[in-house]
Specification:
The protein has 13 helices and 27 strands. By secondary structure, it is an alpha+beta fold. The chain folds into 3 domains: 247 residues, 2-Layer Sandwich (BirA Bifunctional Protein, domain 2), CATH 3.30.930.10; 105 residues, 3-Layer(aba) Sandwich (Rossmann fold); 71 residues, 2-Layer Sandwich (Translation Initiation Factor IF3), CATH 3.30.110. Strands 3-9-10-16-13-12-11-24-27-23-22 form an 11-stranded mixed β-sheet, sandwiched between helices. Strands 18-17-19-20-21 form a 5-stranded mixed β-sheet, with helices on both faces. A hairpin with a 5-residue loop joins strand 12 and strand 13. Helix 2 crosses helix 5. It binds one RNA strand through strand 13, helix 9 and helix 10.
RNA sequence: CGGGGUAUAGCGUAGCACGGUUAUCGCGCCUGCUUUGGGAGCAGGAGGUCGCAAGUUCGAAUCUUGCUACCCCGACCA
């Protein structure tokens, strides 16, 4: 079945690309590095958005919107922040075009040069903190708990659909607090929101932890992250939550009067996930037959395909099909009944399999006679003939089972591909032969971290939360270490 | 930004070293008939500024120069 698209074993990167294109999720656009997200792909993103948005609101946040453009001067206010983003910013320098002197097309009107260049936001900390200054005067104004759904631009050298594009969609939360404790707690709360979303909805097990200083967000005191393992043994950062300390408050002069009538800087967090989650979703579960979408995020959870020879048969089948459809919809299940006569059943089977629809129900003349339907599940590709009685309940249970199976499968894969490594030769060997998460001792220095990266391309993905203390020797330097950290090659 | 490569129909391609009728083949698309429980078969048909621009030539997909875009490897990165 898997004709004209690569298998994972042949070429994982090609397999990923073929999948995104052929499952109709997204495609490259006429603009370098920017993708077009197609309706089916966008429908999945909308599901992700809807669930996360609910979770943000349930944890007390509100949505707002800040400008796409940021004055250049804002970027020089927080030193490490500008350092982190300066090399990948798109800059607006003019505000007008004019007809080309040679009559062919248009050119930039040099007379319309901006006094101050505008930066297309790579992230919104600066414009938001500049705004917060006016909003915060007293401890009574705190906390501020805001989220924004937006697009951002980071001018990447090399792009890949969903995993790294020059423009991408995301949400960014930006909060302001009266105390450090409260801000830290907020950063941790949001990390847990992300982790719960990844595990419960995306069926992707993640490791919660903090980043090493070298991997921290530009301007953060602490960066929390959830890290997932993909099927090719590479790690993917699925979400980050930053404790920003008072860095941005100081850079943008955001002070408030506390209960003791003293001026103090506020404490900040920011947190975000992007359309990169789509990449994680694809790579975590899909197989050589195409996409596999966890039921909880699938735009179409059940597809019903009729098999018929003529119009009379179709009429008869449709009656049964539509009644199943409506009984499923009453249970909140999204169903598509595909009765098009422009495509053959076999074609439809392949199509929905490729698009990762969790359950396919087939109804033909045979079933009408016998009061049955054929049910096929995407995760295991198993098919069984079921009595039509209580079919809605059976399918609802099956969806739950598929969701659980996908999570269990991904968890088992991660466990099989997590290795405790205690010497440098083994470290390199495991990395080259199987990849995966390497749990190893690290002496805690940036020098060692950089050396390891240079020699193996592996980085410290995460220092797990509640990491058990364990005395040992750094896998690279041999210096003493009191805990293991997770290394991997990453996306 | 350094090194290498590619550009021919919606997609994938042949032709190019050695210039010469109407640019090859497959998929997809359209029409008709037969089909329909795992990507149907047969017949007919539509679809091309050969990436762009200039040059050499009686004649350029093919040779020369310039430009542009994309891909791979580095560096950088969510």
């Amino acid at each position: 079945m898997a004709k004209d698209f690569s298998t994972r074993a042949e070429n994982y990167a090609q397999w990923y690309n073929d999948l995104v294109i052929k499952a109709d999720l997204a495609e490259n656009s006429a603009v370098r590095g920017c993708m077009v997200i197609k309706p089916y792909g966008y429908a999945i993103w909308e599901r992700i958005q809807a669930v996360l948005d609910r979770k943000f609101k349930d944890t007390g946040h509100s949505n707002a919107y800040f400008p796409l453009f940021i004055p250049k001067s804002f970027f020089s206010k927080e030193a490490s922040h500008v350092e982190g983003f300066a090399k990948e910013c798109a800059v607006v320098t003019h505000y007008r075009l004019k007809s080309s002197p040679d009559g062919k097309g248009v050119v930039v009107d040099e007379d319309a040069k901006l006094e101050e260049e505008l930066i297309v936001r790579p992230t919104s900390e600066t414009i938001i903190w500049d705004t917060y200054r006016n909003w915060i005067k007293s401890y009574r104004d705190l906390p501020i708990l805001i989220n924004q759904w937006a697009n951002v631009v980071r001018w990447e050298m090399r792009t890949r659909l969903f995993l790294r594009t020059a423009e991408f969609l995301w949400q960014e939360g930006h909060t302001a607090h009266a105390t450090m404790e409260e801000a830290v707690k907020e950063a941790e709360t949001m990390l847990n929101v992300y982790a719960d979303f990844a595990e419960t909805w995306m069926a992707i097990p993640v490791i919660r932890g903090v980043k090493s200083p070298a991997e921290r967000f530009a301007g953060a005191i602490e960066t929390y992250a959830i890290e997932a393992l993909m099927q090719d043994g590479k790690a993917l950062q699925a979400g980050t939550s930053h404790f920003l300390g008072q860095n941005f408050a100081k850079a943008f002069d955001v002070k408030y009067l506390n209960k003791e009538n003293q001026l103090d800087y506020v404490w900040a967090t920011s947190w975000g996930v992007s359309t990169r989650l789509m990449g994680a979703l694809i790579m975590a579960h899909s197989d050589d037959h195409g996409l596999v979408i966890p039921p909880k995020l699938a735009p179409i959870q059940v597809v019903i395909v009729p098999v018929f020879k003529n119009a009379e048969q179709l009429t008869l089948i449709s009656e049964t099909a539509l009644s199943i459809k409506s009984s499923l919809e009453k249970r909140g299940i999204s169903v598509k009944y595909d009765d098009r006569d422009t495509h053959k059943p076999g074609w439809k089977f392949s199509e929905y399999e490729f698009k990762g629809v969790p359950i396919r129900v087939i109804i033909g003349p045979r079933d009408i006679e016998q009061g049955t339907v054929e049910v096929a599940r995407r995760d295991t590709l198993e098919k069984e003939v079921l009595q039509i009685t209580d079919i809605d309940i059976k399918i609802e249970h099956l969806l739950d089972q598929i969701q659980k199976n996908l999570y269990d499968r991904a968890l088992a894969f991660r466990e099989e591909n997590t290795f405790r490594v205690d010497n440098w030769e083994e470290f390199k060997k495991v990395l080259d032969e199987t990849g995966g998460f390497l749990s190893a001792h690290w002496d805690g220095t940036a020098e060692t971290e950089i050396k390891i990266k240079e020699e193996t391309k592996a980085t410290i993905r995460v220092i797990p939360l509640n990491n058990p203390r364990e005395t040992g020797k750094c896998v690279y330097s041999g210096k003493p270490s009191d805990q293991r950290v997770i290394f991997a090659r990453a996306y």
